[in-house]
Structures are given as C-alpha cells and as structure tokens.
Amino acid sequence: MKRLFYLGLIFFSSTIFSEEMVSVKYPSAYFDQVDICFHKVLDPLYGDQTIALEKIAKGTDRVCEVLVSQDNKLLGILVYKNYPTQEYVNNALEIKTFFIVDSKQNSGKGLGTQLLNRVFFVVKENPAFQNIVVTVSEEKPEVCAFFVKKGFHVYKTMSDKYKKGIHEYIFCKSVEQ
C-alpha cells in the first residue's frame, strides 16, 4: 500500500504495511507511552532515562518519532539529534534511541527497517549529514547484528560508559548523498 505522510514540512511517499511514523511532542499521549517504554526498556541498559526524556520534551536538540499501527499501538521509537554532531565522526546524524516495543513479539516484521528507513530519509534530505552513528549495548547482540546487516561497522568500543562492566559499540555508516 502506498501512503503519503506529513512530517514537519515534508511530504514523502513510502511503501509500507499498516504502520506510520508520527512525530512526538510533549505533552501528548504518545510522549507518555515513550516515557513508559524508556523506563522499562532503556533504564536496565543505560540507567535512569529521566534526563533523556527531559531533553526530548524540550525538543531543542533532538527529534522523537514513533512507529505506530493503524490502531495507534506504539511499535517502535526513534530519537535522533536534529543537527550534524561531531562527537564520534564528523557531520553525523546521531541516533540517540532506536528500539522496537515488545521486540520478542514484533521481531522479524520489518519494523526496525522502517525506523532505519526514516533515518535514511532524514539524512538524504539534509546534505550536511555525512555519517550515521548509533550506540548499542553488548547486551543487545540482536541489535548489533541488525546494524551490521544494514551496512554499519563498529567504529569504536567503550567500556563502563553507561553500566559498569558492559561494553558499548559505536556503529557508523557513511552516507552516500
């Protein structure tokens, strides 16, 4: 099925199933769902997510979008910096959050690919982005495998940044504009 989406000031066409990306603003029902998911999924991996949620709520340096089903069920969450960062590699779109809600039930349905396709669209629309970076915990080997399958490589490994004794991998992919 072909659908047109409005995100910000950009219309784009995408072949999808019955899901769509929705921009999340604070306050909203979607933000409340994001808050619950952050604490349930990310707190165990990276510690308390209150500060990250406050940054999303302010919306000054990052964008939060969710993948929702036709019945408005939250399926995936994507948060990325809205400007090119220089922290790991030059001119990168930095993915801050990327996960599928209820991943055991929703694994293998192409939802992660839909989130990543949104990232590729944002990068294509902004020629200042030359790379895409994302941090993944070693505790999520399936996510590491996903990014490798999508052409990312491990750029850097960090230890103890978020959780003592745990390695974090910085995955990077160069952008072809």
Shape: globular
Judged by helices, strands and strand pairing, the structural class is alpha+beta
Strand content: 35-45%
Radius of gyration: 16 Å
First-last Cα distance: 27 Å
| Arithmetic mean of pLDDT | 88
Arrangement of strands in the largest sheet: 3-4-5-6-7-9-8
Can you give the helix content as a percent range? 25-40%
Give a description of the structure.
It is a single chain. With 177 residues, the protein is an alpha+beta fold. The strands form two sheets. The protein has a seven-stranded mixed sheet, sandwiched between helices. The longest helix has 18 residues. The relative contact order is 0.13. The N terminus is likely disordered.
Spell out the key features of this protein:
9 strands; 177 residues; alpha+beta; 35% strand; two-stranded antiparallel sheet; 7-stranded mixed β-sheet
Helix-strand layout with pairing:
Elements: E1 2-7, E2 10-15, E3 20-23, H1 29-46, H2 50-58, E4 62-68, E5 74-81, E6 92-100, H3 103-106, H4 111-125, E7 131-137, H5 141-149, E8 153-159, E9 167-174
Parallel strand pairs: 6-7
Antiparallel strand pairs: 1-2, 3-4, 4-5, 5-6, 7-9, 8-9
In short:
The chain is an alpha+beta fold and 177 residues long. Helices cover 31% and strands 35% of the residues.
